[in-house]
Amino acid sequence: MITTSVFDARSYDRESLCAHARAESITWRFHEFRLSAETAASAHGATAVCVFVNDVVDRACLEMLRAQGVRLVALRCTGFNNVDLGAAKELGIRVTRVPVYSPYAVAEHAVALLLALNRKLHRAVQRVRDLNFSLHGLVGFDLHGKTAGVFGTGKIGRIAAQILRGFGMEVIAYDPVPDAAWAAQHGVRYVEARELASRSDVVTLHVPLTPQTKHIIRRETLEVMKPGAILVNVSRGALVDTRALIDALKSGHIGGVALDVYEEEEGIFFEDLSGQMLQDDDLARLLTFPNVIITAHQAFLTQEALADIARTTVANLEALALGAPFVEGSLLA
Fold it and tell me: Does 318 participate in catalysis according to the annotation?
């Protein structure tokens, strides 16, 4: 039996984790608040903690966890930029992640955002609810025959590219490690990053957040993008320089932006702030643009993806209890 404190836990986390664990193998403690150095004491008596993308697992937090006897940080996500892996290694705390879950969930959400933004569905639905059946200002464009630039061709990027090819789009891609065989099979052509930005009618981001990829979409990138182009980001918020993006929207250079992530989403996304004043001025400004559509980091939220996440997370927790190997590809530290 292993006791696990689950932070930033929502109803769907409780349901999926409990459904995929044997009752006798794990004792769950679910916390709706996030893990940080300030909340780490709540893990007292737990052997493992289970965290998500906005938990702050820095050195101070890890030192607190180590003092509580925690031996494993189990990420129920793929990204790990919120964890100090060096400190974890020094302190002897193992760190695991979910190396892959339904890539279709995220890729399909990216395309859903693109379609909704291009055809102005967010505005059209609200109009009809208000009994306004006018079509004025709702003109979109055919994706067929346009060029889509896919930045990053891992599992998610490849699926997004294949879906866009299904619309009859020309798809160009950039990746530091190109997959020539896949590209040839699906009619995708690799180009340099600058050419992708300048030629694409749609640019969609599918790369992890690293020091090298932070603000890959910045003022200089936006300036070379095709006038009227649409930008889609379902990966990590800090891939995009928000201030530069706002300026590009104000100038009219960018045709539209669809986001499922935001640079400063911690403390905002996954929360109900409907009765409060939004304190983030940049996000508030983005929400004023009619050609911006934002969802609150829900691209992963399908039944299949939640099941994949729960299976891998539970398997790693049970492996710790049994002294067995962790799920292949999941061990980070």
Answer: no
